[in-house]
Amino acid sequence: MLGIAAIPSLLLAVGLLKMPESPRWLIMKGRLGDAKKILYKVSNTPEEAEIRLRDIKEAMGIDVNCDDDVVKIHESKESDGVWKELLLRPTPSLRWILIAGVGIHFFEHATGIEAVILVGRRKLLLISLSGMVVTLAGLGFFLTLAEHSGGKRIWALVLSIVTTYAVVMFFNIGLGPVTWVYSTEIFPLKYRALGAGIGVAVNRLMNATVSMSFLSLSNAITTGGSFFLFAGVSLLALIFFYFFCPETKGKSLEEMESVFTRGKLSDNSNK
Fold first, then answer.
1. What is the spatial distance between Cα 36 and Cα 57, in angstroms, rounded to a whole number?
2. Residue 239 to residues 74, 133, 205: CA-CA distances in angstroms?
3. Where does residue 55 rank: exposed (0-12), middle (13-18), buried (19+ CB within 10 A)?
4. How far apart are CA 174 and CA 237, in angstroms?
5. If you average pLDDT over residues 217-237, what whole number do you get?
6. Would residue 250 be called left, alpha or beta, if left means φ above 0 and alpha means ψ between -120 and 50 degrees?
7. How do residues 90-122 score in pLDDT, each as one tens digit?
8. Given this model, what pLDDT does residue 269 score?
């Protein structure tokens, strides 16, 4: 029975053999001809492929009129430069992108989803977090009632179970899946690998922190109190997403930096 789980992995491995390289990665390596062929395969029309090719060239600082199949990309000290530009000297728009990309990973686990398991694009995020604030507060309330009654209030235990499922449901509506989509698509091409990597590092750090500290936390402030705390963190997350995470639906990777410019941030956040 355990071996059955290997079947989807094998199918995925076979599928990966047929998966084309990312056109953006190919252009970063100077392989314009290969990137153009793939764009023509995956785009709806040749015109769309040309537009996407031109946008990626422009983002990489390559002449949009260049028709060479292979061009030389200057990579000297590129890695050090990316670290400095992203962390030490970011532009205002890149700073907002970094805050959003790291913040979404931080709050995914800071809201206490691991603790819920142990005890038992923008619109989606806001719906998800709104539901989590209410259900986590409800879970804390019912657990507190159950603890103070010594387990005599069966209805409080039943509602604790119901709200636990509700928390997980709201988490999976938005915060769980959207975190990975949003945080990987907002970084400009040059900073995408590093920025997404930092976000994942924060994600794993918060995962470990909440998982390992929950029992100590519940002993210190009770289990119900712990979920009241997580409800408060969820409220902070809701405020964070509302003001710092604009809508990215329908935007190309090359447009992301302009979406996060200070002048447009408030407009995008209200969509």
1. 11
2. 41, 11, 22
3. middle
4. 13
5. 93
6. left
7. 888 888 888 888 888 888 778 766 665 555 478
8. 53
Helical (H) or strand (E) element with 53: helix 46-59
- Judging by beta carbons within 10 Å of its beta carbon (0-12, 13-18, 19+), is residue 41 exposed, middle or buried? exposed
Predicted local distance difference test score (pLDDT) of residue 77: 46
Q: Which long-range contacts (CB under 8 A, 24 or more apart) does 34-41 make?
A: 34/69
Read off the pLDDT band of 71 (50, 70, 90). Answer: confident
Q: Is the pLDDT of residue 11 over 60?
A: yes
- What's the mean pLDDT in 9-28? 86
Site of tokens 């029992």 = 215
Q: Distance between CA atoms of 68 and 34, rounded to whole angstroms?
A: 11
What local confidence, expressed as pLDDT, does residue 83 receive? 78
pLDDT at residue 9 in the model: 83
Q: Is the entire prediction scored with pTM above 0.70?
A: no
Annotated domain spans of the chain:
21-75, 80-269
Q: Assess contact for 171 and 109: CB atoms under 8 A.
A: no
Dist. CA 97–CA 178, nearest whole Å: 15
Report residue 156 CA to chain centroid gap. 34
Rounded to an integer, what distance in angstroms lies between the CA atom of residue 8 and that of residue 149?
A: 47
Question: By C-alpha distance, which of 241, 218, 244, 219 is closest to 230?
Answer: 218
Could you say which of 1.10.486.10, 1.20.1250.20, 1.10.760.10, 3.30.420.40 is the CATH number of the domain covering 80-269? 1.20.1250.20
pLDDT of 81 > 80? The answer is no
